[in-house]
Amino acid sequence: MSYTKFVAPLVKANSGSIRKLRISPARCRSTVASTKTREEKEQQQMDGCTVVEAAPVELISQTKKTAKAPLSKSHIDFENTQEAYKSKGNIELLRSLLVFKLCTFDILVDKNKELMDLSRKLLGQWMFEKLMKMTFYGQFVAGEDHNSIKPLIRKNEAFGVGSVLDYSVEEDLTQEEAEKKEMDSCVSEAEKESPGMCADHREKKYKAHRQFGDRRGGVISARTYFYADEAKCDIQMETFINCIKASGGASNDGFSAIKMTALGRPQFLLQFSEVLVKWRRFFNFLAAQQGKSQMTVLEQKLELEQLKESLTELGVGAKDDIENWFTGEKLGLSGTIDLLDWNSLINDTTKISNLLMVPNLQTGHLEPLLNIFTEEEERQMKRMLQRVDILAKHAVENGVRLMVDAEQTYFQPAISRLTLEMQRKFNREKPVIFNTYQCYLKEAYDNVTLDVELSRREGWYFGAKLVRGAYMYQERARAKEIGYEDPINPDYEATNRMYHKCLEYVLEEIEHSRKANVMVATHNEDTVKFTLDKMNEMGLSPTENKVYFGQLLGMCDQISFPLGQAGFPVYKYVPYGPVNEVIPYLSRRAQENRGFMKGSQRERSLLWKELKRRLLAGQIIYKPVY
User: Fold this and answer.
1) What's the whole-model pTM score?
2) DSSP string of 277-339?
């Protein structure tokens, strides 16, 4: 199903017309956990920071070009402090040293919000803001508004580093306020009125639980939005639009980041995620019936006639209806159906509540996830899709690429599906929409390979941002407490292997077709070196702008700036917003840097090395020239 088919009827059609579930000509997919564990992995919170024929699957590794024109190999010296810090004045180096040192003191980090509140009371607002701009705010935030961030963006660009703009204002809610908002926005009216009756069809993972209602718990690398009402979502959409416009006005090839939970009621994301998971599970059930459960995701091809018989026997539909399901363009012509074909069954039905039909493995029948949707819930779901569509159009108009951030696993299948639909519409001529893949998840490689395969079949540009992940502690605690499988890989080494495995697959696709694009969002120097080595092996030139690198503003300049000055596309995530309103963001940066700095003193030692070099060279006052 195309993005146009998926969104347009949902936002325009008469909600009274309900069509039967049927196959659509194009294909779609759900980024849902595989029943097989692929590789293991863990996270280091955000790691420091966000295809062709249906017949026998042709593995990319089997189609490598045998002959390549020799290219000069890229080698980056990450020890060269003169290159790494040439964009920084001496005062900026001293500020970095001070901030990073403060981040190593547990008491300062643990009590950072209380200390900031006390400082504001003792110093007054004006002096407090001055102090923050000289320290934490000045280190990690670009400025207060669109105009004040332009000098820093232009300076970074002069040294080869682009920007991913991110308006980092957050509500400063208490835990009780956050929990109340989450429960109100994630539970449907039907569930509130008849909790016992609705609970029968719902899975624990995809239901709201008060003890995990505050989604900020254990998360130090990602911004969190809580639903208030539709007007607040419109305001947040306008904020994203302003961010997109600012990115377009400040640079020629910028990115802007958005979060789906800012654009609508999370109830829809929870419910749609559960539907996608259950459809995927039903496919696995049918694959097992045909003795194909041990195959990899893309190798599982169900025999069409046998599949029709199974569906008829299960009572999923009448024989004629099932026959009609598989008459879409090119669908089933090979005599088999794979997971991407199967996902097409979730179709462009007019009423969004019709999307929330799930197969019952016991009866085989399609049943509604919830029996009742109010008209207001229907409208809220449609508005979320409208907002997503509007943002994508603004990104195209302003020449900005849009990165959709990953979120918790109970929201992520729906987020990835909606992002995929945007890609199918807007990535036809160039990569505009980028999806984020969290490589600390057991399902990460399956998700990447499925999406790459779909992009190859349909001929659009695949865009990915690879991160290790930001929600590890929260996800593990929630899975253990509520009672479902831990979605996270077992350890950090396994996460690294998963990251490199996903990255290598996308790099091979770039080598194969030049229609894939990837943002390597990491502060891990070994991963950056791994990427450079693979690019050298494959003959991928940085000037092709297919492989990007990303780090947070104020961190790992010894990686970002040498890459940028060597001609690699590299970007800093650039947060901005008023001092008082980005305090939650700064609090997380302090917590993140505590682990980062305790684990490695490398960045501090490089900063000292450069400062000493300048002093010995007589550069007491150093001003960057650009």
Assistant:
1) 0.83
2) HHHHHHHHHHHHHTT-TTS-GGG--EEHHHHHHHHHHHTSS-HHHHHHHT-STTTTTTSEE-H
